[in-house]
Write a structure and sequence with these properties.
Layout lengths: L28 H35 L35 H6 L14 E2 L11 H5 L5 H11 L1 E12 L2 E10 L6 H12 L11 E2 L7 E4 L12 E9 L2 E9 L5 H14 L1
Antiparallel strand pairs: 1-2, 2-3, 3-7, 4-5, 5-6, 6-7
């Protein structure tokens, strides 16, 4: 079930026939042969001149004294003659400052914690992991999306969600990709952002997310349908390293830019 479903209640004409020639074509072939012969003679002369000039140039260069090359601007690299004494070695980067170490651990720990008083959202996996095939099923053409994600090197997906009231839901996904010559996280986020200006989505370019090179957040136009409650939606898309982030907020109350920006900035900070 999607996050929205969880909060919604209640000739062309035939071509003309070719004209029949009544007179033979004029004799244009003989002049063209003369032109080709002239062009050919010029080309041969040019090649001979080029070869002759190159040979003379090599001969002059061979008779000259060798010229020394200028010295390199970079000084020689220096290494210590022996290792530093015990206790003076540089300390390894702490895990809390090592983004790579953080990303290789339990990905769920990098998810933004649920706010105080938030209720559990029953429509997502309880353990915080989303299978890749379930992730692909959220899109049109799931089989094509699954193949696309496998080509990008998708590795695992951590997810959290909550309800702040009866009709407002938030979901955050961390999609991690394997290290390869393909920038999986960046490619996926840029692909999603391409759809946002469409009228079926945010109908706009969104707003740049501070602290993220390509991140943006979006507030969608309200969706109104007779017999149903109004639907408000906001999203954020960004990536950090090999982790792509999607944030969805859907509800029957207005969602401000400040709300979605705050969520995105705090989740970015945890990465």
């Amino acid at each position: 079930m999607s996050i929205q479903e969880s909060i919604q209640n209640p000739d062309t004409a035939p071509p003309p026939e070719p004209e029949t020639a009544t007179e033979p074509a004029p004799p244009v072939f003989r002049p063209r042969r003369r032109v080709l012969r002239t062009v050919g003679l010029i080309a041969v002369a040019a090649v001979l001149g080029l070869v002759g000039g190159t040979a003379v140039g090599y001969g002059i260069q061979a008779e000259r004294e060798p010229t020394a090359l200028p010295p390199l601007n970079q000084p020689g690299l220096a290494y210590p003659a022996k290792p530093l004494p015990k206790g003076q070695e540089p300390r390894p980067l702490p895990a809390k400052d090592d983004r790579q170490a953080k990303a290789q651990g339990d990905l769920r720990k990098l998810l933004l914690p649920k706010p105080a008083g938030a209720k559990k959202a029953e429509f997502t996996d309880g353990d915080g992991w989303m299978p890749v095939n379930d992730f692909a099923s959220q899109f049109k053409g799931p089989s094509e999306v699954l193949g696309y994600q496998l080509d990008l090197g998708i590795r695992r997906i951590a997810v959290t969600s909550w309800m702040t009231d009866e009709h407002t839901a938030t979901e955050i996904r961390l999609i991690q990709y394997r290290s390869s010559d393909v920038l999986g996280a960046q490619d996926f986020i840029e692909d999603q952002q391409m759809y946002m200006p469409d009228e079926d989505y945010a109908a706009g370019e969104g707003t740049a997310l501070k602290g993220s090179e390509h991140g943006r957040y979006y507030v969608f136009p309200v969706q109104r349908k007779a017999g149903y409650m109004d639907i408000h939606e906001a999203r954020a898309y960004f990536h950090r390293g090999d982790i792509a982030v999607e944030i969805f907020v859907v509800g029957t109350k207005k969602i401000s830019e400040k709300d979605i920006r705050s969520l995105a900035e705090r989740q970015l900070g945890r990465l």
